[in-house]
Amino acid sequence: MIIAVDGPAASGKGTIARALARHYAIPHLDTGLLYRAVAANVRAMDLDPAVEADAVAACDFDDAMLADPVLRDDATGQLASIVSAHPLVRASLLQRQKRFAYQPGGAVLDGRDIGTVIAPDADAKLFVRATPQIRARRRHAELQANGSTISFDRVLTDIRSRDLRDSGRAAAPLVQAVDAATLDTSFLSIEASVQRAIALVELGRTGAKD
Ligand SMILES: Nc1ncnc2c1ncn2[C@@H]1O[C@H](COP(=O)(O)OP(=O)(O)OP(=O)(O)O)[C@@H](O)[C@H]1O
Ligand SMILES: Nc1ccn([C@@H]2O[C@H](COP(=O)(O)O)[C@@H](O)[C@H]2O)c(=O)n1
């Protein structure tokens, strides 16, 4: 079974995707980490994220890099949303994601274009939402817990600019697949979001959509 989980920054899609992977005992890929790895390489190599050829030159990395906690910081997320707009960057990461999605036994992937581009024929598709304020509050708390001193206003501004860039780009923009079920986590606990996600996946598998 392939499960596609998409949504904007800090909507809770990773939390839900990890829980679905545990529930169905299938592997999970956080595809945002791939773009974050490219962003971290661009920074380390002192390249220009806005120049497509520079970003493409930073696309060579192995899976071990995805565990680096530096990928999770706010600045790397911003840079990731710049490099991810380049069609050639997306093309260079495409097969890696498709191979993961279509491995025997199935998989859960979360990102921005899983249900539309990576696995358009996924068995179940979720589009996870939450208001920008709530997403910023959660992300701010997470960053603070990890030792960051970033302000709430900065996190909210960054989330809004990332939303705009990710939705407005020409290549594989953040958009809800027509056959994806909406899951708004704004007023749901993590536990309630996960239970709702499992219920929606079960509905999706049987062909009915929210
Ligand atoms: N329903 C919820 N209630 C409260 N906190 C939540 C909920 N869902 C997720 N969180 C918390 O919000 C933060 C962001 O969640 P998560 O990392 O799953 O979002 P994401 O959409 O995968 O983010 P990104 O786009 O950066 O990968 C985390 O600290 C997570 O624990
Ligand atoms: N399928 C994807 C996943 C991510 N991106 C871009 O990467 C940025 C960071 O992603 P997070 O999920 O870790 O927040 C994100 O803002 C997107 O620009 C993408 O394009 N496609």
From TrEMBL:
Q: Identify which top EC class this enzyme belongs to.
A: transferase
Signal peptide start-end = none
Query: Which catalytic reaction applies to this protein?
Result: dCMP + ATP = dCDP + ADP; CMP + ATP = CDP + ADP
SUPFAM superfamilies, per database record = P-loop containing nucleoside triphosphate hydrolases
Keywords from UniProt, A to Z, are: ATP-binding, Cytoplasm, Kinase, Nucleotide-binding, Transferase
Q: Where in the cell is it found?
A: Cytoplasm
Keyword Ligase in annotation: no
Question: What CDD domains does the record tag this protein with?
Answer: CMPK
The terms under GO molecular function for this entry are: kinase activity
Q: Which residues bind ATP?
A: 7-15
Q: Where is the Cytidylate kinase domain?
A: 3-201
The catalytic activity of this protein is classed by the Enzyme Commission as 2.7.4.25
Q: Does the keyword Methyltransferase apply?
A: no
InterPro entries, sorted: Cytidylate_kin (IPR003136), Cytidylate_kinase_dom (IPR011994), P-loop_NTPase (IPR027417)
What family name appears in the similarity comment?
Answer: Belongs to the cytidylate kinase family. Type 1 subfamily.
Q: Which HAMAP family match?
A: Cytidyl_kinase_type1 (MF_00238)
Q: What is this protein called?
A: Cytidylate kinase
* Organism listed in the record: Sphingomonas mollis
Query: Lineage of the native species?
Result: Bacteria, Pseudomonadati, Pseudomonadota, Alphaproteobacteria, Sphingomonadales
Q: Which gene encodes it?
A: cmk
